[in-house]
Amino acid sequence: MSTPSLTALTSAPGQSRGLRSITVAHGDMDPQSGLLEYVVRNDAHSWIRRGGGLVGYGETARFTVTGPDRFTQAQEWWRRELAGAEVVDELRVPGSGLIAFGSFAFSKTSPHESRLIVPEVVVGSSEGRSWLTFITDDAEAELSADAAEAALAAYLIEPDADRSRMPGDRLGPGVLSEDEYKLAVAEGVKHVQAGELSKLVLARDVVAHLETPVATAQVLRELAVRYEDCWTYAVDGLIGSTPEMLIKVEDNTAQARVLAGTLDRAGAPEGDPDYPNRVLAGSDKQLHEHRIAIDSLTETLQPFTSSMTSHSEPFVLQLPNVWHLASDVTAQLAPDDDGRVPTSLALVQALHPTAAVCGTPTTVAGALIRELEHLQRGPYAGPVGWIDAAGNGEWGIALRGAVVETPTRVRLYAGCGIVAGSQPEAELAETWTKFRPMLEALGLPHRPTPLVTNRQ
């Protein structure tokens, strides 16, 4: 398999390399598989829902950063890259032209590097239109449809092979054992009941140890097919299929999907279609958790908008493994004093972290997370997605996912919202429900024998 050039990585951070790109129409795709026919490389970047989205190959530029100003620095880098760029784009739709895939650490104190990555080749599809983008920093490279097609073909010469489940595949403990996680939840409940905060989100991890290297492309295809209403993502080893859209910006309109309130579909009574509505919408605990999440988002988003609409009552989102209480929010973005409409990444900076993945108040919740989880979340529950040259973009919250740490070690994450009525045993069970998408895609059992601690 050909290896993409990484010469762009030698440039100093923030230094413009003179990006050049061409976007051309790319013919019809298979109506059944859509972009999934291009998810054939384990190193590809992906953002896919219902067969549409973006798949990127290679790397023309990269920016990495840590710390509390990671979003600001990433935006400044992207603006500098755009300022010196040459762009030929016959489609001019959101996601065409110059784009960058991104993944950001959950915590401002995390040593994990947040990143923006400009691929060399992108295949995109949306609303019946498909396109191909070729991006280079070579001043002499030809910008033409033929050059773009040739660059794509080079990445597709030898697809990565799938893998089968092996006898040596196993699931090992993460930082906390099941009992230790339940103790952390119980301690979190005490803080909520004491009035220190109204919600706290506590996560835990487990580690998949594989006998043969993980087939990331195969995992992504399985996730995308099983969870077609979710956004299946892959950025630099961070993979998953999130049901939660942090923010989408398209032509000055912002959209978000908020989830809070979860019900496992396993063991649900048959022949009772009203069961999820009755249990979720009829639960004061679930409704309270959801209201905290939706209020947190709308209050933060309001200063950037001229108008905003959301469901008066949450709806039940049906996924293969769970039901969620969900609310969709749509807002018209307002220009600032300089006449500029905020970009998708600017809104990500304002919105992250939401109550759905941290808690409220955020400062109190963040401190308790560090105290009780004993876990470096890294990119888990952080923003993941893409941004284009016009500021359009889609950013989900990196949930229902994992980090490929080595070819044979994959760390999975799951978390739960803790409120005054939370029960430790129920919250532990919910984490296993949320691990299920990745466990299924990896070919591992849904819930193994309770794992002993492996404090790291």
Describe, in short, the structure shown:
This protein has 456 residues and is α+β, with helices and mostly antiparallel strands. It contains nine helices and 23 strands.
Describe the structure.
The chain has two domains: 7-156, no CATH class; 170-442, Anthranilate synthase (4-Layer Sandwich), CATH 3.60.120. Residues 1-16 and 449-456 have low confidence and may be disordered. The chain is α+β, with helices and mostly antiparallel strands. The longest helix is centred in the last third of the chain and has 19 residues, at 424-442. Helix content is 26%, strand content 32%. It has helices at 70-83, 145-156, 178-193, 216-226, 275-281, 284-301, 344-351, 362-373, 424-442; strands spanning 20-25, 45-49, 52-57, 61-65, 86-89, 99-103, 114-118, 121-126, 129-136, 170-173, 199-209, 231-235, 238-242, 245-250, 253-264, 305-310, 315-318, 322-333, 359-360, 383-388, 393-397, 401-406, 409-418. It starts with 19 loop residues before the first strand and ends in a 14-residue tail after the last helix. Helix 3 (178-193) packs across helix 9 and helix 4 crosses helix 9 (424-442).
Quick tags:
456 residues, alpha+beta, Anthranilate synthase, 2 domains, ten-stranded antiparallel β-sheet, 26% helix, disordered N terminus, disordered C terminus
Within CATH, the superfamily of the largest domain carries the name Anthranilate synthase
Instruction: Summarize the main sheet.
Output: 13 strands, mixed
Distance between the termini: 36 Å
CATH architecture of the largest domain: 4-Layer Sandwich
What's the domain count? 2
Multimeric organization: single chain
Specify the overall morphology. globular
CATH class of the largest domain: Alpha Beta
Helix content: 25-40%
Helix segment tally: 9
**Secondary structure: number of strands:** 23
Task: Please give the radius of gyration in angstroms.
Answer: 22 Å
